[in-house]
Amino acid sequence: MRKYIVILLFVMLLVSTSYGKVVECIVAQVNKDCITLSRLNKELSRLKQFLKSKYSGAEYKEKLKESESKLLNNIIDEMLLLQKAKEMGMDEDLDLAAESIRDKIMKDYGVPSIDALKESLRQRGITYDEYMDNLKKQILMSRIRGAILHRDVKILSEDVKKYYENHKKEFMVPALYHLREIVVYTKGKKESMAREKIEKALSELKMGKDFKTVAINFSEGATAKNGGELGEFKLSELSPKIRDVVKNLKVGEYSGIIKTNFGFDIVQLVSKKDSYIKPFNDVKDDIENKLFNEKSEPAMKKYIKKLRSESYIYVFPPYRKYYSEKE
After folding, report:
1. Which tens digit of pLDDT belongs to each residue from 172-190?
2. Which of 21, 46, 59, 169 has CB atoms 3.0–4.6 Å from 55's, for a disulfide?
3. Domain of 24, in residue numbers
4. Per the domain annotation, does 123 fall within a domain?
5. Cβ distance 274 to 178 under 8 Å?
6. Model confidence over 275-309: pLDDT tens digits?
């Protein structure tokens, strides 16, 4: 360990012979690999950008302080996993795998050539080599995580069935209400004139005229030309006033006049699809994935804790504010 620290102290004091300035500073050592200050600063910049996109003011400062205290932990954990992946030989075909993903991304986003990709990256302040290195890193991380989780996380078929039986509400498909409407707006006219028009439409419906025909003749909404066709809705997707009326209609029935914020409305329930619970066979894969994901984080934490206990990790004092020993 002392040998490692001596080497690191030497690197920290490394200076450019032509300028006499520090070239790079070492923040931490993880086995035989080092975390540089430039890496830490880059991750800190990304963290700040991410948090600013979600928070502001005092909440941003609080989240930043909390995240900063574990920033090195995250970098170290990633480094340990990458080291393990390489130790297990998962990096053998890495160049080919990265190039394959690169080509797929270029195809999906319509990037015509490598030169075009390089230029696009340059405009974002990223070099092509950095981009490819990051792709390789993500592939390695995916491989090692997959290996760990599929070895340590087992989901039994009885667990999946038990979850289904205990959480059937999660698999409830709500009823769907197929609606048509006749709408008359009050904007730009006296309310009494709008009411008179909607009452005339209602009168024709009561005389037995087809709802679609009345909608075409009286409705002022965009749906008028299609006979007031609105489509299918869950009750939760309707406004409270419409919802309270629709849920009590029988198929084929239409409502009375409904006063809304924009005018007057009459709705018809064309058809209804009753709610139902999805069959087990339709959702068992989703349940298995959910249970797998729930167990993944604890399994990864346990594995990383083991890696840490087997590794040499040294964080230099000035940077320990970014590192939590308690994790």
Report:
1. 999 999 999 999 999 988 9
2. 59
3. 1-69
4. no
5. no
6. 999 999 999 999 999 999 999 999 999 999 999 99
